[in-house]
Amino acid sequence: MRVIAGNFRSRPLRSLRGMDIRPTSDRLRETLFNVLTAGNPDALAGSIWVDLFAGTGAVGIEALSRGAAQVYFVESSKRAADVIQENLRSLGITEGCEILKMESKRAILDVEQRGAHPNYIFLDPPYGMREAYSHTLNALADSTLADRALIVAEHEKRFDPGEQFGRLVRFRKLLQGDAGLSFYRTV
To answer: Can you give the pTM of this predicted structure?
Structure first.
């Protein structure tokens, strides 16, 4: 696993062994960022991200590498949070990031109370936790974090997280290999 592009291009990232953490593949991460920057390579400059169920931090680190100003890495597993910290340290990233060691629903409230206005929110619960998609997307729909944010959910190709959650509506679904990305905005 490596950083795809930007300031930390081709630098390796550490992962955890086992199936509890399933990092977003390099290929799917590249596709995600190609979609987000289509026609505008500076689209992420100065952006604010919330990386829910951050795992290894690969998505948030990719965002930082491509010019994001702030990434909140949300991870409830101590082992995974430690890996995120190691990955940030190995890249020399000391600013523009914060690791929130808590459940995603609690982190949504925490980030909202800070007055943050994220541009992008990425969520990638462990595939076995299918109920986490609806719980998290509903919590986002009820929060002010979704007001200006593009929300992207990574999921199994065979699993559909849903079309609508309150005021959040899916406007695009992209399938690649065994995975999919669902894109949501508020209506």
So the answer is: 0.93
